[in-house]
Design a protein that fits this description.
Elements (H helix, E strand, L loop, with lengths): L2 E4 L2 E4 H15 L3 H9 L2 H13 L6 E5 L5 H10 L4 E6 L2 H13 L6 E3 L12 E7 L8 H11 E12 L4 H23 L2 H13 L3 H10 L2 E9 L4 E8 L1
Parallel strand pairs: 3-4, 3-6, 4-5, 6-7
Antiparallel strand pairs: 1-2, 7-9, 8-9
Helix pairs in contact: 7-8
The structure holds S-adenosylmethionine.
């Protein structure tokens, strides 16, 4: 059995999805609160930037992968309008349930599906935009997931990846201190779970940096990829065009 990483731990490939599921089962009910606390609200700015960049138009077909509690799907649905369609998907039912309930509370009814990004249950060339925010780093076979995202996009369609990335040099030490000391501490205090937030910090360190992800997207069939660094590279948006 091939090995892969789960944070800094080496695990059998077939164990990773189960371990990731345990993390998100554990954090689902506090996910939105913890996002605000840990990022000081910045995740809202990162997402707003990504949504503006995606430039979804009235009538477009959008697939949000690893959509969790639905922040991006909600924003895209307002832009795609009644003539468009935004599908919210995630591999984790607990996260998706939170997302569906939040959307219903906001008066939005969207199609929701539990599915693995590596095996999407949608036909070829059926979406104008595919988005994945803070989800790609949790996937076992990122290349396979990127290829699947390309498969369901129409030619000329766009893939938007919003993900933690590699910050600029002066930020690295304070960011490491914050990630490995403060995040698990707040996780323990507020969500009663330090381990999931330690995994968050470790999984970010194991994720490909800006240039590597860009190369992976090109290899997966995205002929043009733009990279936008946010907050000094703590987060990056990769926008790829399927050619
Ligand atoms: C950090 S949350 C991001 C949620 C949301 N996109 C956001 O930005 O707030 C990561 C999500 O990725 C999902 N995920 C992990 N592996 C996945 C996979 N193979 N396919 C689909 N979703 C996956 C998790 O269940 C979790 O809901």
């Amino acid at each position: 059995m091939s090995q892969t990483h789960f944070g800094f731990e080496q695990v059998d490939e077939n164990q990773k999805a189960r371990k990731v599921r345990q993390v998100f089962d554990s954090v689902a009910s506090r996910y939105d609160l913890m996002n605000d606390l840990l990022s000081g609200g910045l995740h809202r700015v990162w997402k707003a930037y990504a949504v503006a960049l995606a430039d979804v138009r009235e009538g477009q077909q959008v697939l949000d992968i690893a959509g969790g509690t639905g922040d991006l799907a909600k924003a895209f649905a307002a832009r795609a309008g009644a003539g468009g369609r935004v599908v919210l998907t995630d591999i984790n039912e607990a996260m998706l349930r939170q997302g569906r309930d939040r959307l219903l509370d906001a008066g939005q009814v969207l199609p929701v599906a539990v599915c693995d990004a590596e095996h999407l249950p949608f036909p070829d060339a059926s979406f104008d935009l595919v988005s994945v925010a803070f989800g790609l780093r949790n996937m076992t076979h990122k290349d396979a997931a990127l290829r699947e995202m390309g498969r369901v996009l129409r030619p000329g369609g766009r893939l938007l990846v919003l993900e933690f990335s590699r910050p600029a040099e002066p930020l690295r030490k304070p960011y490491d201190w914050y990630s490995f000391k403060v995040m698990p501490f707040i996780g323990k205090l507020v969500a009663g779970d330090a381990d999931s937030y330690r995994y968050l910090a470790e999984s970010i360190r194991m994720h490909p940096d800006q240039a590597t992800l860009k190369a992976m997207m090109k290899a997966a069939g995205f002929g043009h990829v733009d990279v936008h660094n946010l907050s000094g590279g703590i987060v990056a948006v990769h926008l790829g065009i399927k050619c």
